[in-house]
Design brief:
Blueprint lengths: L2 H34 L16 H23 L15
Helix pairs in contact: 1-2
Length: 90
């Protein structure tokens, strides 16, 4: 294998790993939203009522998971910033 092929294999492997992480975290988020999204119907005059404690806990977990997901994306980019653009490759 040439150096270019080895680098391309490494890049594809890193992209696949990043994709797996994203899919796993999206599945976690969807699971959280599925369990917490089925809210009872409310009357118009009760819209100012605070959310139940269990929903607040779910919301906090959701925020923490999204924050972790975004932090992971920022610290582990799929492609280094110094990489070439597709038009630069020859």
């Amino acid at each position: 294998m040439s150096n270019k092929e080895v680098e391309e294999e490494r890049r594809l492997y890193q992209c696949a790993r990043t994709y797996e992480k994203i899919v796993k975290q999206c599945d976690e988020l969807i699971g959280m939203m599925d369990t917490g999204s089925k809210l009872p119907k409310r009357r118009k005059n009760s819209t100012t009522a605070p959310a139940p404690a269990s929903q607040q806990e779910d919301n906090e977990v959701l925020v923490q998971t999204i924050t972790r997901f975004l932090h992971d994306l920022r610290t582990n980019p799929a492609e280094p910033e110094s990489s070439t653009t597709p038009g630069d490759r020859n």
